[in-house]
């Protein structure tokens, strides 16, 4: 059985802040306001060794119930890299119609319309992420 690891001390952030409180939760990492120079805003971890049975789990909210601009791509992408950040891929690729799918799903792309309230997300890390 794998040990539970809280990797909260091994995060690197770009254009965000640690908040004492956001949307009724204590100690959150928040991306608030427009990014400077339209740069990407990132939250990354140190390199991790993962394998069979490893999961990623986090609580997530976008906008705390407030709508986002429909003219901007406000989605959040959960990605991984196996080459020290040179290339990035979605942890789980979406499978949407008309593609043939065993089950239809959005992968690890998150849209504000689905996460107006805090939601716990649990993802079994696929072999490609090892």
Automatic annotation (TrEMBL):
InterPro entries: Reelin, Reelin_subrepeat-B. Keywords: Calcium, Cell adhesion, Developmental protein, Extracellular matrix, Hydrolase, Metal-binding, Protease, Secreted, Serine protease, Zinc. Its main location: secreted. The keyword Disulfide bond does not apply. It is found in: Secreted, Extracellular space, Extracellular matrix. It comes from the Eukaryota. Belongs to the reelin family. Extracellular matrix serine protease secreted by pioneer neurons that plays a role in layering of neurons in the cerebral cortex and cerebellum by coordinating cell positioning during neurodevelopment. Regulates microtubule function in neurons and neuronal migration. Binding to the extracellular domains of lipoprotein receptors VLDLR and LRP8/APOER2 induces tyrosine phosphorylation of DAB1 and modulation of TAU phosphorylation. Affects migration of sympathetic preganglionic neurons in the spinal cord, where it seems to act as a barrier to neuronal migration. Oligomer of disulfide-linked homodimers. This is Reelin.
């Amino acid at each position: 059985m794998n040990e539970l690891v809280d990797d909260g001390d091994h995060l690197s952030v770009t254009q965000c802040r640690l908040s004492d409180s956001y949307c009724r939760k204590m100690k959150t990492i928040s991306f608030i306001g427009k990014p400077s120079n339209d740069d990407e805003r990132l939250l990354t971890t140190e390199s991790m060794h993962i394998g069979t049975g490893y999961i990623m789990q986090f609580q997530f909210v976008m906008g705390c119930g407030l709508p986002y601009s429909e003219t901007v791509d406000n989605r959040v992408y959960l990605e991984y890299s196996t080459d020290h950040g040179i290339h990035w891929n979605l942890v789980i690729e979406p499978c949407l119609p008309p593609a043939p799918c065993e089950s239809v799903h959005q992968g690890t792309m998150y849209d504000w319309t689905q996460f107006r309230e805090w939601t716990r997300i649990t993802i079994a890390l696929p072999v490609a992420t090892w």
